[in-house]
């Protein structure tokens, strides 16, 4: 395998190889129409969902999942994947009338999404032009990307990036961005080029101060498509959408289960892997991914130098490779939420119950899971260290001047999370 085609996730395959496997020659319209009308397409969609459930059932949790919590949450995870798969067919399938859709979000999680991010996707086609209208608001940052799709489907290419902070804006924060293959003559405003393989416009908004920041607003329109009504859906088109929704759901479940199972089997307790870039990520972003497992009376101390980075965070994920509850529990910490010790170090405590310190990462009752850290727009790559200690010895493992964090302070910090999520994910 060449350096230009690195393996993605835990598949051991390049993005091109995985894409070729998952996207074989498309059926012709007549065959697809027949499949829809005789029920074959629907039955194959249902079989894809059934197969995705088999991956959840096959994941080895029996040793640590006595009350069945992990398996129950596995099917909660699967419902979220089904929801996202249906979004692919109903709201993310039309480049003529694109919509910006949240995927993932707090109810439909996948792929170890960042607790500080809002993810937006819109389907586009490379030979069209699109206008993005919006308002900057006071979000910390946003990463705008032109992509070919989802890593788990072998679509791992990022063709163009632009930061929210780089946009030209009006005095009130309004902006416009043009997406097109060529920059029109005389156009001097915000522009992102569309290459021949471009299929999605995505937005990854970053929030640091959850109490104060508000999401930026984004709307997308196809230039020349304003006011057009869509044609009636054909049987062939509907069969293709069922195929797409089923493939997305099944492959997402399969891909991330394989990825995290390998991570779990390779883990050495009390260690943490060094940070590195991943295929499909943007520039200057490195991730550290490793496992953790704790007995009821154990805790894990995570200790790190601070990265020379505009943004950083540490978070917990569950065995399904999704972030733990971040709306009602403190499962992640960023620079605005964490306390930095007097020696300039970051120290977090992973524990099953509140240790009375600010930098608690709540396991949400899980006996095991993944710990992930991100250094973003970073010039350095510090490698955190971890120690597993008895819960009763947490204080001895922290600096002597670590202050107590009261239950009232914890409740107020969680209330900030509740309010922030209502702003980040308004009911649509």
How is this structure best described in words?
Helices cover 26% and strands 25% of the residues. It is α+β, with helices and mostly antiparallel strands. It has 3 domains: 130 residues, no CATH class; 134 residues, Sandwich (Jelly Rolls); 158 residues, Jelly Rolls (Sandwich), CATH 2.60.120. The strands form 4 sheets. Strands 1-2-8-4-5 form a 5-stranded antiparallel sheet, with no helix packed on it. It has a 4-stranded mixed sheet with strand order 7-6-3-9, with no helix packed on it. The longest helix is centred in the middle third of the chain and has 32 residues. The relative contact order is 0.15.
Helices, strands, pairings?
Elements: H1 15-22, H2 29-37, H3 40-58, H4 69-90, E1 101-102, E2 117-123, E3 130-135, E4 141-147, E5 158-163, E6 174-180, E7 190-193, E8 200-206, E9 217-222, H5 235-266, E10 285-293, E11 298-305, E12 309-317, E13 332-334, E14 345-351, E15 360-362, E16 368-378, E17 385-390, H6 394-397, H7 407-424
Parallel strand pairs: 6-7, 14-15
Antiparallel strand pairs: 1-2, 2-8, 3-6, 3-9, 4-5, 4-8, 10-16, 11-14, 11-17, 12-13, 12-16
